[in-house]
Write a structure and sequence with these properties.
One of its GO terms (cellular component) is membrane. This protein is mostly helical and 196 residues long. It has a single domain, classed as Rhomboid-like fold, CATH 1.20.1540. 71% of the residues lie in helices and 0% in strands. It contains 9 helices and no strands.
């Protein structure tokens, strides 16, 4: 059965946390910067909740559009194939890892403010790549080029926090690998009656 409920929830939460940013953007620059700082992730932390809200709050129209487009392209497939638990576990762990990336930027002497779902979405992509279903992503050369670019330092020149993508991607690969191992172990016990 085709599932999209959790994708819809992620979309609604993202929209709800992004609307205040867009409203502030249309007021003045100071209001916009304040709202982004309140909902985004930076280091040293401005707010204790920034590592969570940054997963859903998008600082620009383009960021919101491309993240939500990617969410609707990947999310329903992911939750249909791997279930609700794996969707939220991967999305949130990858998103939090991505939201922690300002610590690394700060350590490198380049303070940044991170916001948006792209790190969480890269987690879903990494998860899929770690499974036998990787062809859904890797069969298209454009996907491969986009992934390589968005995970590389070249993306930083375009204002893209590539380390956030990279951290989310790594967490996604790890959770996908653990999922495959668990499924293999379960199937082995199912057919042979004992664990390996």
């Amino acid at each position: 059965m085709y599932r999209f409920r959790n994708t819809l929830i992620a979309f609604i939460v993202s929209t709800a946390l992004t609307i205040p940013i867009f409203i502030a953007m249309n007021m003045n620059q100071a209001s916009y910067e304040t709202m982004v700082a309140l909902l985004g992730s930076t280091w040293p932390p401005i707010t204790p909740w920034g590592f969570i809200t940054a997963i859903f709050a998008h600082p620009s129209y383009a960021d919101y559009f491309f993240d939500m487009l990617t969410l609707w392209m990947i999310g329903p497939y992911f939750e249909t194939m791997f279930g609700t638990r794996n969707f939220w576990l991967t999305f949130m762990l990858s998103g939090i890892a991505s939201a922690l990336s300002p610590i690394l930027y700060y350590a490198m002497g380049t303070p940044v403010l991170v916001g948006g779902s792209s790190g969480a979405l890269f987690g879903l992509i990494g998860f899929i790549i770690a499974t036998p279903h990787r062809g859904v992503i890797l069969a298209n050369p454009i996907n491969i080029i986009a992934i390589i670019f968005l995970l590389s330092p070249l993306a930083f020149a375009f204002g893209i926090a590539y380390l956030g993508h990279l951290l989310g991607f790594i967490v996604g690969i790890i959770t996908g690998y653990l999922y495959v191992r668990r499924e293999q172990r379960f199937n082995y016990v199912k057919y042979f009656g004992f664990a390996i």
